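User: Need the bound-state model for uridine 5'-triphosphate:
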Amino acid sequence: MQIKKAVLPVAGLGTRTLPASKAIPKEMFPIVNKPVIQYLVEEAVSAGIEEIIMVISKDKEIIKEHFAENLELEKLLEQKGRTKELEAIRKLKNLAKITYVYQNEPRGDGHAILCAEEFINDEPIAILFGDDIVDNEKSALSQLIDVYENKKTSVIAVTKVPEENISAYGVIEPIISDGNVHEVKSLVEKPETKDAPSDLGIIGKYIITPEVFKNLKAAESSHGGEIRLIDGFIKTLDQKTEKIHACTVQGKRFDTGMINGLIAANTEFASK
Ligand code: UTP
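Assistant: Bound-state model below.
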């Protein structure tokens, strides 16, 4: 089955980027001249996604506005002969079919994904978190889709993480690795450096099968009542109902959910 839908959960609080993200969602922070969220929508579209379900909160309506038509602005730019800007604005409303759903309280990334349930019909879907940008000619999502098409399992994006940072990540324990593709034995959330089962840290890009979605739904609330996507993967591995693969994505990765990651992304993209 082809991957045609992507869920973008972007209803989180963004506490790590406060106070910058107090009134402006971190997904609207610019990387040079476009907000982070636009890079993610473009990544999805270029990977063949036809429908995006964006999970927002009522405080993040501005994301919706960014992709909506603004006829008044278009008219003004037209009158002023600002053709380049006009094109950039018009492009936004036709970029993708985006449906918005609301997460009423921030109960975790897994809970946000479950909020999109009514738009998902027992099909594999892509998930892109709102803060991970990978700069590469072939997008990270396209790389995951290649692995999905080959293995027909859920696929988790991972990146090699220096030892001193590994305890900030979910980490995979691979059973076997074939180049960039790893069959996953287990997942550990934020391990102590000495307990990390590998140097492969999970980043916010995934393909999930209906089995993982089902197990996410069934997952007990963990970590302070939050439901996290990783719970769906862990349950699937525990039950051994399906295999899960991970893919070390090629490209330079930026965590724009941290101010230093956002600055690094700006420096890199501006230099191009
Ligand atoms: P993060 O943990 O990276 O983002 O969640 P956060 O919670 O917004 O930020 P911090 O940790 O407080 O700084 C991963 C993704 O899941 C979304 C986030 O918006 C982000 O895209 N998310 C997280 C939700 O949609 N809802 C939630 O309840 C939590």
